[in-house]
Each structure stands twice: as structure tokens, then as C-alpha cells.
Design brief:
Elements: E1 12-16, H1 42-45, H2 49-62, E2 69-74, H3 75-79, H4 83-105, E3 114-118, E4 121-124, E5 127-130, E6 136-138, E7 143-147, H5 149-158, H6 163-181, H7 185-194, H8 199-219, H9 229-239, H10 242-248, H11 263-276
Parallel strand pairs: 1-3, 3-7
Antiparallel strand pairs: 1-2, 4-5, 6-7
């Protein structure tokens, strides 16, 4: 995907370091958004999703940790710190340019997320973060956190290489920011707390919607898509499906424990976003309202 060079005045980027712990993710739909907390690739590293959600909830309520950054690694300097960093900054700039007008059209207040590129460990508004948990979105400080070494892991261990696969990860996390800005976070969190049996199902729907939103971004920038991009995206979506990750980890495939969706589901919703370029087609909660 041929992205334009980022505008350093349109993005907030920093290089993070220090800390440790668990990060999280969230979700929703424009007009009826939702938010939950979870890591994108927990099965790769063996983390239990329910424990992760609980740990993040606790950190959001009690953590007073402040974001730490490495001096002198801000803005364009952080963006130019390696190929993956430059890609992430270009993607963030494009995502901002794509989503901001949609919020303005819907009369919903828009704010750009921050992007923290880190190595090993960092601190976030949701508490400490480590590279073992993969990329994540923190709703507390509206930040996207990317350990760029994860992309190497994604290629080596999951067979999901290529620039569009990396853009997909970034756009998925941005999808959680879209969901956060809709202001419906408390509703879904309340629903999960009131009916714990529905927690996993709701989270699957949220993650699949973020996949669809990632596709929408690409679909709205179809002129930038190159041959092979869609295949790279589908490969990445298939590689991080719950069933595939469980199977590769030597576990029994357990649909009741899914929190991100099966490989087929993730491919389906990413493809829907790509083909339609329409955020209104990303309503993964539609059947619940029938």
C-alpha cells in the first residue's frame, strides 16, 4: 500500500520506555460504539483473556502511572527511527485523514490518538506494557502502543508478513479508537459486568468490528492499494484467529473462550470493510437488536 509521507504536524508520536505489565484493547460502532479491554495476540504468548481483562480493569481504576518517554524521541524523530516506525507514522497520518471527516459529518467530537513506539516495555494510561502482549490501544489515554519488534514476530511465528499486514494491525488498533470516541463505552462494560456469560461474545463482536473498520480505512483509500495487499491482509487475519492461535499453541479449539473471533470471521469482516469502504457495514451487533 503506497501511503503518503506523514505530516509531522498532524500526528502525536513518541518513543516510550520503562514499566511493565498488561495492555488492552476496546471497541464499538459510530453512533452506537462500545469498548472492552484485551490484547490482540494473547494466545500467541499464553495469556488468559479473562485474567487480562480483569487486570486491565484494575489498572484503569487504580493506576496513577504516568506515560514515560525517551528524551528527544518525539514527533518526526520517533517516526524516523526505523522502517517499521516510519510505516506506523504514515499509517497513523492516513488513518487520521480518513476518519476525522467522518466524525465531523456525524457531528461527533473527534480527537486524534497518540502513537507510542516502544521496545521491550513502556508505561501507558492503562498501566505497564510489555512486548509480550503485542500492539494495543489504551482507552484511558487514547493511545496506540506498538512494539515494532512484534512485526518480526508476526512474520516469523505467524507467517503474516508484508507491509499491508502491518498496516492492518495498526488500523485495527485505530478501530478501537474510533469505538472509544463514540462515547458508548460504559454501556458495553455494564452489559458485560451484568451478564458475564455474554462477555466473550461481546468482545468477539467488538474485535471483529475493529477488523471491519481496518478494512474500511483501506477501502476508502483503494487507489493506494497495490497487488498482493488484500492477500497479505487476509493472511494476517487468518493467522490471528482464535481457533488458529489455539490450535498452533497445542490447545483444544474452544469457541466459548474466543475473544477476537475465528480466522474465518476475522477474514470475513476485514473483507467486508475492504470491499464496501463503508463503516455502516461494520455493525457486528445487528443480530442482537432483532
Amino acid at each position: 500500500m503506497k501511503l503518503n509521507r506523514f505530516d509531522p504536524n498532524s500526528i502525536q508520536v513518541r518513543r516510550g520506555g520503562g514499566g511493565g505489565g498488561f495492555p488492552g484493547g476496546g471497541g464499538g460502532k459510530i453512533g452506537c460504539g462500545t469498548i472492552v479491554l484485551a490484547a490482540i495476540a494473547y494466545f500467541v504468548f499464553g495469556a488468559d483473556p479473562l485474567q487480562t481483562i480483569g487486570a486491565i480493569d484494575g489498572m484503569q481504576q487504580s493506576s496513577q502511572t504516568q506515560q514515560t518517554t525517551t528524551a528527544g524521541a518525539q514527533g518526526s524523530e520517533a517516526c524516523n527511527d526505523g522502517r517499521y516506525a516510519l510505516e506506523a507514522c504514515n499509517a497513523l497520518s492516513s488513518l487520521n485523514q480518513t476518519w476525522q471527516p467522518l466524525f465531523q459529518q456525524a457531528n461527533i467530537t473527534f480527537s486524534q490518538p497518540t502513537l507510542t513506539l516502544f521496545s521491550g516495555r513502556t508505561n501507558s494510561g492503562c498501566g505497564g506494557a510489555s512486548s509480550e502482549m503485542g500492539p494495543f490501544y489504551c482507552p484511558t489515554d487514547q493511545g496506540i502502543y506498538i512494539d515494532t519488534a512484534f512485526y518480526d514476530t508476526m512474520q516469523r511465528q505467524l507467517g503474516a508478513g508484508g507491509d499491508f499486514a502491518r498496516y492492518y494491525v495498526m488500523a485495527h488498533e485505530y478501530g478501537h479508537h474510533v469505538q472509544k470516541l463514540t462515547g458508548m463505552a460504559d454501556q458495553i462494560r455494564s452489559a458485560q459486568q451484568q451478564n458475564p456469560r455474554s462477555a466473550n461474545d461481546l468482545q468477539v463482536r467488538i474485535e471483529l468490528q475493529a477488523d471491519c473498520y481496518a478494512g474500511v480505512w483501506a477501502g476508502k483509500n483503494r487507489n493506494l492499494i497495490e497487488p498482493g495487499d488484500m492477500e497479505e491482509g487476509m493472511t494476517a487475519a487468518a493467522a490471528i484467529g482464535d481457533d488458529t492461535l489455539q490450535r498452533n499453541a497445542g490447545r483444544r479449539v474452544s469457541p466459548e473462550s474466543f475473544t477476537h473471533g475465528s480466522s474465518a470471521q476475522r477474514m470475513q469482516w476485514l473483507k467486508r470493510g475492504l470491499e464496501t469502504g463503508d463503516e455502516d457495514q461494520c455493525d457486528t451487533f445487528a443480530d442482537l437488536r432483532r
